Amino acid sequence: MRVLAVGLAALAWASVSPGQAASKELSERSVKVLMQYAWLILPSKFTRPDGKVIEVDKKNKKNETLIPIDVARDVIKVGYTSAQAQLCEMWEEQTINYDAMIRILRSKHDWSEQQLLYITTLHRMTIHMAAGKLKVSEKNGEQIVSLEPIEPSKATCNDDKRKRVKEIVAQHVEAAKAVTVPAKGNSTGTVPASQKKK
Prior knowledge:
Elements: E1 2-3, H1 8-11, H2 18-21, H3 28-41, E2 45-47, E3 53-55, H4 62-65, H5 69-87, H6 91-108, H7 113-130, E4 134-139, E5 142-147, H8 159-177
Antiparallel strand pairs: 1-4, 2-3, 4-5
Helix pairs in contact: 3-5, 3-7, 5-6, 5-7, 6-8
């Protein structure tokens, strides 16, 4: 079993402004690798907080569940910022960062419940990957992706980093406020899977 390193270096730019990031996009290959890992951990059945059950046909409807590569790339960027927030125990910032992402995505397309569940899974997986807590192993010729608990890192979370995370999340929230979300739309009713201890 080995810690996933694919794309970590490329994700380091995710905390810069959109203009600066334009020339440093994650490659299509890197995005596809991360999308496949998210597909592997996507649950075939998920129960929302309101009790509604979302089922995913992982045998026959993969293409209908996956999202465009450009959208996946944006989700990965947001997931990286969410990871920094979690490592710094900035739970509110992590949550509103995720909520802003969902609002922006829903303004662009009427995603199915299965696609929104996949988006949430890709975001959660990116958090673990960026924190070095995503592992990939093989068993009987098949890849197995597992997520390990994330422990906040005070040693690497100084005031400058916390300030930077706050600024990035604030920019994302402002971008979300500027969009219009259709009155009717699907929602998984999920929240980002943080490791906050209660």
